[in-house]
Amino acid sequence: MNSRGVSPVIAVVLMVAITVVLASVVYITVSSLVSSTGSPPPMIFLSQITSDPGTAAYEITGAPESTLASRLFSVVLLVNGSLDEASRIDPLEAGTVGNVTYVDYDGKLTKGDKFTVTVVPDTDYELAVIWRATGDKSFSVSWSEQ
Q1: pTM for the model
Q2: What is the CATH number of domain 45-145?
């Protein structure tokens, strides 16, 4: 019986091929675990300006110094913890969508812009301004209508 092993050249080629495959698998696994969200969302600040029966109004009191186009943002309304799809404004544009009205004076998200929400008693609300580039909240405000 003749017992010969694999030639040294074939052994080296197989070892290199296995190493490349393993390195590729590790790279793909690690890169899918590490997510790059980029820069954090711009910070927006809202203050309540009125809370009349049936409406709640908020005004932007703080926005980035560099004015950003309002279309770079979206707004969502949660009612009792559930997303009100009919009130989603995406991208953010002046006007009324569902229960949310956005008043914009210059096409940019700036101080003085206003949000008005149509509300009903005994309901919890959250109005969130979303940075569309990452989907992160720039700001949100929660309240309960009594």
Answers
A1: 0.70
A2: 2.60.40.10
